[in-house]
Amino acid sequence: GDVLSLVPDVISSAFYKGSFYDSITQTLTGGANVAIPVILRTTDTSATNGVSIVSDGTNLTRITVANAGVYNILFSAQVSNSAGSTQVVDFWLRKNGATAAFNVPDTTGKVQLQSNNTFVMAAWNYFITLNAGDYLYLMWTATSTNISVVATAANTVHPASPSIILTVNQV
After folding, report:
1. What is the distance between the alpha carbons of residues 134 and 122, in angstroms, rounded to a whole number?
2. What does pLDDT average to in each consecutive run of 10 residues of the chain (171 residues)?
């Protein structure tokens, strides 16, 4: 082919990116209103370059970039409420640390879930400037331990549904 047909491949490979997900239901292990990072156990290696998920010492939670740049962080979380009352779940970013002191300002989003086995897909994105070696946590908490980030099995109609999907693209 001609040179112009190669341009999309060259541009695509020049940007850093990552595609990650988890196929296990996640719960609020620390209790209601306690912040915990989402776990991302699986990497789609064919769609990942320059971004990795690094262990925090216990779980694969640190979204780590090898190169400085501006990144678009996009996630979708399938959240469920098994409580008998309305509950709220929050998601936000932390950068380069595990405590609330490392929360990234103005990144919290809230989703309200009605009672008794409701499902909602929480999904949004962030643009954030990162230095080489920086890492982010996608944090979450909820007003009840009856809230979970749910994975579902495949059936004869649809494929399995990960509990969390997170992609990272340099922009």
Report:
1. 25
2. 58 83 96 97 97 98 98 97 93 98 98 87 97 98 96 96 98 95
